[in-house]
Amino acid sequence: MQIPHLKGLVLIGGRSSRMGFDKSRLNYHGIAQVDYVVSLLSHDVQQTYISGQKEQLEVSDYEVIEDVITDAGPMNGVLSAFQYDPESAWLIVACDMPLLSQKTIHRLVAGRDPEKMATCFYNVITELPEPLLSIWEPSAYYFLQNQYKEGNQSLREALKK
What we know:
Layout: E1 6-11, H1 33-41, E2 48-52, H2 54-57, E3 63-66, H3 74-84, E4 89-94, H4 102-110, E5 118-123, E6 128-136, H5 140-149, H6 155-160
Parallel strand pairs: 1-2, 1-4, 2-3
Antiparallel strand pairs: 4-6, 5-6
Helix pairs in contact: 3-5
């Protein structure tokens, strides 16, 4: 089996309505959070993209993948990435994870199983998978499309299935 290339996708979509400003521009490490996450991914993926709504992406200096569906949450970003490149696996990260480290990303990538649809961390306290730091293999594309068509827009629910 040939292992699909791994690409990175930083999810910056959403309205940031609780914060009142673009959460991808938060500064926890001396730079905007989106810049920090892109730099973390650069060591483990072939290429990194930013995913969001058109108006968010117009000011980006990065390769972008525009959301193809509105109001589908993070699943929108993953489906958009697969529509852009269905042959690659996608390591997705939400932009608002300030405690994310290089060590954590390395651990996720080291645990990747390309024969499964997805690889993620499991929170033993909540007994739930973590969808916003996960790797989605090309085999997940059709499954996620069906989940969306059936009204399930939750990546966590998709992981649980």
